[in-house]
């Protein structure tokens, strides 16, 4: 684990799980900390203010960092949070930018409620975690970028078979069963629920690629994170989080993106 990724993990575990927000953000962030979680103010002071109250509201905090990606200046963590003996459970997908000293300077997140059972018997965060095929990082990032442009943006949806395996496609979305054919039904529908508009971030390491996209649903803006696992040049597993973007007057910073 590189230093920048370790800093992000430590910020999570020491600052949030262990309840030491001030100490953690001081140690692991840079000169300025830009925040895109709309309920949190910019800066170290914003982090401290939000999470000191969060700790009071949630005295019992279990945090499991399930997947990580380190890609140049960016890192990504895929996290399960269980609060107050499982009273609430959340999957958080977090991207961090870092400075030349590997300290955190910017943060984006998308949070969704944890699902213990998908239509095919998975959970919203279980599955493969091991990173391999490091030499294919750039190739896999391009594969995912092309798939989003062609399939999710709707430029060439008929090319879906070029990107997603028809032999094994494991789906962790709580509403969609495994298999390419089931995903085709969703993505080819005229009234598909989510419209992808723009790729904001795309990071990868070996066989894993994570993206943050601007999206819309029924005319409302959404932040969408997708995590893909690639094997033999095809996407074989998928996790996702979606979160509505609140009205601008509710933001405490410059916004979700």
Walk me through the structure:
The model has no long low-confidence stretch (mean pLDDT 97). The longest helix has 16 residues, at 137-152. The protein contains six helices and ten strands. 26% of the residues lie in helices and 37% in strands. A hairpin with a 5-residue loop joins β4 and β5 (104-113). It has helices spanning 3-17, 21-28, 43-57, 137-152, 160-163, 180-188, and strands at 29-35, 61-71, 74-83, 88-98, 104-113, 170-171, 195-205, 208-217, 220-231, 234-244. It folds into two domains: 3-118, Nuclear Transport Factor 2, Chain: A, CATH 3.10.450.50; 134-244, Nuclear Transport Factor 2, Chain: A. α2 runs antiparallel to α3.
- Based on DSSP secondary structure assignment, what is the total number of beta strands? 10
Strand content: 35-45%
CATH architecture call of the largest domain: Roll
Please work out how many helical segments DSSP would assign.
6
Please give the share of residues in helix. 25-40%
Shape: globular
Task: Looking at this protein, list some descriptive labels.
37% strand, Nuclear Transport Factor 2, Chain: A, 5-stranded mixed sheet, 257 residues, 2 domains, alpha+beta, 10 strands
